[in-house]
Automatic annotation (TrEMBL):
Lineage: superkingdom: Bacteria
Protein name: 4Fe-4S binding domain-containing protein
Molecular-function GO terms, alphabetical: 4 iron, 4 sulfur cluster binding; metal ion binding
Database matches in SUPFAM superfamilies: 4Fe-4S ferredoxins (SSF54862)
Length: 365
């Protein structure tokens, strides 16, 4: 019997990837009334939900199914709803930009809030759960996950992205020192280079896997990698339970040599981990455990989950005072600060008062 060489999922995936890349390299423009519209621009914004639903329906792993659902929810909140409500976000050079671009605009308020989130939660705050690049590659490009390259050679290639890291941070320093000159000379060519690489690597997904840009060419992945190393986020390992089955390394889309790392340091302490938790969840012996700031900063009267939600809400609400020019923005800023600090230290005065009232009420009954 001749095997069917055509994989429908991969064919559809490749067509979708081509369509997304064409919107950047070869925009198809139509004249509608008095407006010129590019019909293939930003096509990932409707392809992500389509392929995301397909991924959820076909995902067998309960945790990854849950993660995908959260990714689509976050996509809707941070990339579709909030950008409509919050039109312009300030940048440190005195300019402003739309929220969809502000998340990864060097020097924007949103960029610095992401910076804090990554320090506390690790790269998963962006690269694992809440980046359009991740959404695209975990949905549209996921059919080519089996093409992910592993091994020592491909692991060494991760250092390529440090070149872009240096360019981005040189631009940030220049932006602080001389914003007018920085914008006039380097802003446009730098972002064009980054976008060319981003859309160009979509075409390489069928050859080297869906997370190729995250591994080799993303300046934000490199920036967050530094924070992964210096922050509290780690994956701890109990090597006494490990029997070298190799499942963790086979599951890792970033090509991390997990087994050698855990035997050397008893943890996966690398900037490359993007927090998908596949290695943790697939390990048959529960060798691996995720650790973040909540394990380092002892909480008081709040649960692990409550702390995480409060920190995320606090960082999200912190955007509002920068875009609202009225007195209510001050109160929103104070609420954001309260949510963030209460989540950070795991203590809520109001929660304590509420619990005391409930306790007294039970005793009186």
């Amino acid at each position: 019997m001749i095997k069917n060489k055509f994989n429908t999922k991969k064919i559809l995936s490749f067509i979708a990837l081509l369509w997304i890349a064409s919107g950047h390299f070869f925009p198809i423009r139509l004249s509608i009334g008095e407006k010129i519209v590019s019909i293939n621009a930003f096509s990932e914004f409707y392809l992500i939900p389509i392929f995301g639903i397909w991924r959820i329906r076909n995902e067998k792993d309960p945790f990854q199914k849950k993660r995908l659902k959260w990714m689509l929810i976050l996509f809707g909140i941070y990339w579709l709803i909030l950008p409509v409500l919050l039109r312009k976000i300030p940048v440190i050079d005195g300019t402003s930009t739309t929220l969809t671009t502000a998340y990864h605009t060097i020097g924007s308020i949103a960029f610095f809030l992401f910076f804090i989130a990554v320090i506390l939660f690790g790269k998963r705050a962006d690269c694992g759960w809440n980046c359009t690049c991740v959404f695209t590659r975990e949905t549209v490009g996921f059919a080519f996950r089996d093409k992910t390259k592993k091994g020592d050679f491909w692991w060494k290639l991760r250092h390529l992205k440090w070149i872009l890291l240096l360019l981005v941070w040189a631009f940030l320093i220049y932006l602080i020192l001389d914003p007018e000159a920085a914008n006039a000379t380097f802003k446009r060519p730098l972002y064009k280079l980054i976008l060319d690489i981003y859309y160009g690597t979509l075409l390489l997904v069928p050859l080297i896997g869906h997370r190729n840009i995250c591994r080799y060419a993303c300046p934000w992945s490199a920036t967050w990698a530094v924070l992964n190393k210096i922050g509290p986020y780690k994956i701890m390992a109990d090597t006494s339970k490990c029997f070298n089955c190799g499942i963790c390394e086979r599951e890792c889309d970033m090509g991390i040599p997990i087994q050698s790392l855990i035997y050397k340091e008893n943890m996966i302490d690398t900037g490359e981990c993007m927090g998908c938790e596949r290695c943790v969840r697939k390990c048959p012996k529960d060798v691996l455990t995720i650790v973040d700031f909540r394990d380092k900063i002892p909480g008081f009267n709040m649960s692990y989950k409550q702390r995480g939600i409060r920190v995320i809400l606090g960082l999200t609400f912190a955007l509002l005072p920068f875009v609202l020019n009225n007195t209510i923005s001050l109160y929103i800023g104070l609420v954001a600060l309260y949510l963030f600090l209460s989540g950070l230290f795991g203590y809520s005065l109001f929660s304590k008062i509420f619990k005391n009232k409930m306790h007294n009420k039970k005793q009186s009954i």
